[in-house]
Amino acid sequence: MTELTPGFDDETYKILDKVYKNLAEGITGIAASKKEDLYLSAGYLLQRARSGEFLKTFMNEWNKFREKGRIQDEYTYTEQHQECLQEMLDFLDNDSPDQIRFSVLKNIFLNTATESFSSRDDVLPQQLLRIGRSLNSAEVLIIQTAYKLSKEGEDASKRSTRDWRYAISRNSPLGYPELVESNEQTLENKGLIHRRVDPDNSMFSKPGHFRLTGLGLRLCEFMTEYKPETDNE
């Protein structure tokens, strides 16, 4: 893992940098352990290495947002920011992050910090971050695709459940409607897509936004409507 260039005087960056260095030291310690211990730690070692790379990406994007003035100095002292930061670090430390889920949480976190989608007094961003953390990659792809099709003007009111699954699978990397179906019930239970009136084949109770609920739509806005900073901006 490479050493990061220290940022300017930013308390959040200092926390992230400390976590990153501790993580790197932990990986080095495992790699230097006895051979038999290393076999037992191989999966953990890989997870820690991936978490470190995700954390490095997160730190770099945070710095760019701060340098461009998209995140105000006083925001970093708010309760909202502290709760969201704790959730993000818990995700990197305790879960098994993958690129899709990491991107979701990073986007929600940074969009929240810019205060362009919400205010610092709102409690919704913390809830959206927790919901985003609870999703698996397939669930993310399903609601992201529903959001994209909704924005393109697609209408779910005339589609059966089977048609909806095929539309999601054809327009997402999932490819198979069976993968959509196997994650459908969980998304319903989390309140992100509307339930079917008839579980077998019928239309949906509320087909608007290609079946996304109001909560699902808001989550997709936070995790999809994201404009990263670039070095030449």
What does this structure look like?
- This protein is mostly helical and 233 residues long.
- It has two domains: 124 residues, no CATH class; 88 residues, Arc Repressor Mutant, subunit A (Orthogonal Bundle).
- 63% of the residues lie in helices and 0% in strands.
- It has nine helices and no strands.
- The longest helix has 33 residues.
- It is globular and about 50 Å long.
- The N terminus is likely disordered.
Strand content: under 5%
Described by strand count, sense and barrel closure, the largest sheet is: none
Number of strands: 0
How far apart are the termini?
27 Å
Backbone shape: globular
Give the number of helices: 9
Structural class, please?
mainly alpha
Radius of gyration: 20 Å
Any low-confidence stretches, pLDDT <50, length ≥5?
Answer: 1-8, 27-32
Q: Which H/E pattern describes the elements?
A: HHHHHHHHH
Summarize the structure.
With 233 residues, the chain is an all-alpha fold. It contains nine helices and no strands.
Summarize the topology:
Elements: H1 11-31, H2 35-67, H3 79-94, H4 99-114, H5 124-134, H6 137-151, H7 161-170, H8 177-189, H9 214-224
Helix pairs in contact: 1-2, 2-4, 3-4, 3-5, 4-5, 4-9, 7-8
